[in-house]
Design goal:
34% helix, 21-stranded parallel beta sheet, protein dimerization activity, RNaseH-like_sf, single chain, Leucine-rich repeat, LRR (right-handed beta-alpha superhelix), two-stranded parallel sheet, alpha/beta
Length: 864
């Protein structure tokens, strides 16, 4: 009897699970898997036994039991198992027949563990060690020395150097070598290489900033079978770099994404003798029409071309490409902003074999779509952020491109239900469609798409016209749906989720953020046995108990995004249980954003409204805090209707009491008919108004410190210096307070000039200090006096300074002739010399104890 290839996916809640929820992989489970592997071992082809392990479910002990008993394992994927150590690696070494192993991001495994694998797994053909940061030259060299059958090796982002490359290049069967991000490899090291790999077909040197044409020439010297080379985000593409590739006649694919392209480099690439089939220049700098035209003239057999974000490409390049490379099957040209709409007509007329076209964020219009619809083999079409296309052009695509499988219409706002109906009728093989943030899309579109039985991924986020009716139609008609994104579809509620739970048994990923789904709908979704990924942010009807029930009932979850406010509300035992079973929680503290509120806020901050938004923010802030008196004062000043600048109207209620907003939306109450959706703006206002608007006051304080701490006063203690500055600043405040007659509570006229985001322009400094905020505030300070027995007395600073002045005059200064005048100390704004006399300082009293106040620098009770 012969067994076919089979993958084993182990889930912790399967019938084989242990009764202890925290025992992730027990001996019982391992033996059960071992029994299954025994059946394969008895077959004539035991190498077909493959295990794709969801690595977060396994511990070192569990892996040891598994590999000891499963001698028929040939493929294991333990990617992202960041908790596994060298003990797990030694357990893997027991799988003697292992051929393909992935340990990507196993960051705790070291050279010792890799050495165990090299000794035990001699039949390895493919090994991925990407991001195994503790593996160095020793581990990679051991793999090369012991595993002679290696065909694919990926030590990307490892701290390796050229020391291990000689052994790697000796591998006679090596075809794919990925050295991405290996910054320890440089030209000097590569020049010392003595070996060459004649069997190498693919070389990836992406993000190797220290490798230029010199090192590349040394590395690929003698490589006769090289077919693909990837140099993305590396050194500049010069003529010397291109000349390194002259002798490789089997080269078919060159990827230079993110590189700087020089004129000499592109000209040298045009002289390559190899039959290049694929070129990738995504996000390259320096690529122009002249260089590109000369390149395609020499490589007319191109099948795949990527010029994403090449913003210097114009109509000239598209004309050259379409006229010379008529066999193109894949053309990616996202965000080529200088390409006019006429260029897309040429693509449809000349590239009849086209299967993939990415025209995202371009000027394509309906005429271009009508031309592209001639490409009958088109299977992938991306038209996101194309505002010039409409139903007319898409109707042509739907009627002619029957093999279309993937369609992206993200933010193509002119598209309506008519276009989607045409696509659904003419493209029965459709597997993925993105119609997010299109206001004209309604339930009619989803009912039309329900005819596409092969549909696997649907993204309708931000489609306000979609409701549970449309989602139910998709659930009933598209049984293969695996990915569903309904974020910000406010009209989708539990009814839609009940249909999804009943009919969409293949669903693996769903985004429910901002929907009207409650506990009922979420618990219903938990019955889906294949659901692995959920995003649940800002569900108004969700409670902690409902969330906990759904999490416990959903047995296959591996990733959940939740709002941070739920974290303290969920039991730690529940979180621990889920994490022990492989579920990773991503906590987000993203604020709720009501419909249209972000747009209104953005509009309000544009000139010339910046100054007025300060007033509206204060109104919202006070309303949020329930300060009825202040809100009434604002209404009295601004009139019965205080019109905000951000699109909200604050109405003065007819009753005597104000009702501050307490929820997400301030609904209609019994006493008032006013409605306000400003909770987020209230939070924003509170945060802004709680910040220090300017550092001007601090700068002035520092200036006073500099004036007082002169050479004459270098013996002043810190507490005494603080007191002098405090007195000086209060002198200024009192003077300005006595001079000012009226005060605006909102202080629109006193907005600090550094807040240019609130104002239309920057005013020059006028030298004016800050005013009081409200009338009646006593801002000239108090003094804390220490008394015996750890007692303290708080007295006005003015009275204290008067006492200090009199005492110092009696002890130090000669008594002046008696002059009639007002009693007490009159605080005014004086120059530095006069300040010294007011406070009573002399050059020799820096360390004295004045009036029972300890002025030592280490005084923790200093109130200045």
């Amino acid at each position: 009897m012969k067994f076919q290839s089979k993958r084993i996916h182990h889930h912790p809640h399967s019938p084989l699970s242990s009764s202890n929820p925290f025992d992730v992989l027990t001996e019982e489970i391992s033996l059960a898997i071992a029994d299954l592997s025994g059946l394969y071992a008895q077959s004539s082809s035991p190498e077909h036994f493959i295990a794709t392990l969801l690595s977060r479910f396994f511990t070192n002990a569990g892996l040891s039991s598994l590999f000891v008993n499963c001698s028929g394992l040939v493929e294991v994927d333990l990617s992202n198992a960041t908790h596994l150590t060298d003990l797990a690696a030694s357990a893997i070494a027991e799988a003697r027949n292992l051929e393909r192993l992935s340990l990507a991001r196993c960051k705790l495994i070291t050279d010792m563990g890799i050495g165990c694998i090299a000794v035990g797994c001699r039949k390895l053909k493919s090994l991925c060690l990407k991001w195994c940061l503790r593996v160095g030259d020793l581990g990679v060299e051991l793999i090369a020395l012991k595993c002679k059958q290696i065909q694919s090796l990926d030590p990307s982002y490892l701290p390796i150097t050229e020391k291990c490359l000689n052994s790697v290049l000796e591998l006679q069967n090596l075809e794919d070598l990925v050295l991405e991000g290996c910054n320890g490899i440089d030209d000097d090291g590569l020049s010392t290489l003595e070996q060459s790999c004649k069997s190498l077909k693919m070389l990836n040197l992406s993000n190797c900033q220290n490798v230029t044409h010199t090192g590349l020439s040394s590395l690929i010297n003698g490589t006769e079978q090289l077919q693909q080379i990837i140099l993305a985000y590396g050194s500049s593409v010069t003529s010397d770099l291109a000349k390194c590739l002259y002798t490789y006649l089997k080269l078919q694919s060159i990827k230079l994404d993110g590189c700087i392209i020089t004129w000499s480099g592109i000209k040298a690439m045009a002289c390559l003798r190899a039959p290049i089939k694929e070129l990738s220049f995504s996000k390259c700098i320096g690529l122009t029409d002249d260089g590109f035209s000369s390149l395609v003239q020499s490589h007319k057999d191109l099948r795949k071309l990527d010029i994403t974000c090449c913003r210097k490409i114009t109509y000239t390049s598209i004309d050259s490409i379409t006229s010379l490379c008529t066999s193109l099957t894949s053309f990616r040209m996202e965000s080529c902003s200088l390409v006019p709409k006429e260029a897309f007509v040429l693509i449809g007329e000349r590239c009849s074999f086209l299967e993939e076209l990415d025209a995202t964020d371009n000027e394509i219009d309906d005429e271009g779509l009508k031309s592209i619809s001639r490409c009958s083999k088109l299977s992938i079409l991306k038209l996101g952020i194309c505002s010039n296309i409409s139903d007319e052009g898409l109707a042509k695509v739907g009627s002619r491109c029957s093999q279309l499988k993937e369609l992206d219409l993200y933010r193509s706002t002119a598209v309506s239900d008519t276009a989607i109906a045409a696509i659904a009728d003419g493209c029965p093989a459709l597997e993925m469609i993105n119609i997010a943030y299109n206001d004209k899309i309604t339930d009619k579109s989803l009912i039309s798409l329900s005819k596409c039985g092969m549909l696997k991924a649907l993204e309708i986020r931000g489609c306000l016209g979609v409701s549970s009716t449309g989602v139910s139609a998709i659930a009933v008609g598209c049984k293969q749906i695996a990915v569903l994104d309904i974020k910000k579809c406010f009209n989708i509620n539990d009814n839609g989720m009940l249909s999804v739970a009943q009919f969409s048994q293949n669903l693996k990923q769903i985004n429910l953020s901002y929907c009207s789904v409650t506990d009922v709908g979420l618990v219903a979704l938990a019955s889906l046995s294949r659901l692995q990924n959920m995003t649940i942010l800002h569900l108004a009807g969700l409670t902690p108990n409902g969330l906990a029930a759904a999490l416990l009932a959903c047995r296959a979850l591996t990733k959940v995004k939740l709002h941070a406010s739920f974290r303290p509300l969920l039991s730690q035992s529940i979180l621990g249980y889920m994490e022990a079973h492989g579920c990773v929680f991503h906590w987000r503290d993203k604020a709720f954003q009501a419909l249209g509120e972000a747009r209104r806020l953005e509009e309000s901050l544009r000139p010339p409204r910046r100054q007025r938004v300060h007033e509206a923010a204060i109104q919202l802030s006070e309303a949020a805090r329930g300060d009825e008196a202040m809100l009434l004062a604002i209404h009295q000043r601004r009139g019965t209707h205080a019109q905000g600048t951000v699109g909200f109207t604050f109405k003065r209620p007819e009753t005597e009491h104000l009702v501050p907003p307490t929820g997400i939306v301030m609904g209609e109450s019994e006493n008032t008919k006013s409605k306000t959706s400003a909770s987020e703006l209230q939070k924003f206002a509170i945060r802004v108004l709680s910040l220090t608007c300017s550092v001007t006051s601090c700068e002035r304080n520092w200036s006073v410190f500099q004036q007082l701490h002169s050479k004459r006063r270098n013996r002043l203690t810190q507490s005494r210096l603080n007191g002098m500055v405090y007195a000086k600043f209060n002198c200024v405040l009192r003077r300005r307070y006595q001079r000012k007659d009226t005060t605006d509570p909102i202080l629109l006229k006193e907005i600090d000039e550094s807040n240019e985001w609130l104002m239309d322009h920057m005013d020059d400094e006028d030298g004016e200090e800050d005013d009081f905020v409200f009338d009646g505030d006593n801002l000239h300070g108090m003094m804390l006096i220490k008394l015996p027995g750890h007692l303290k007395l708080l007295i006005p600073l003015e009275e204290h300074l008067h006492q200090v002045h009199q005492e110092i005059e009696e002890r130090v200064l000669p008594k002046p002739p008696l002059v009639e005048g007002p009693t007490g100390l009159n605080l005014i704004d004086e120059e530095d010399e006069e300040i010294e006399q007011d406070i009573g300082l002399s050059e020799d009293d820096g360390e004295e104890e004045v009036h029972g106040i300890d002025v030592d620098d280490d005084d923790d009770e200093d109130e200045f």
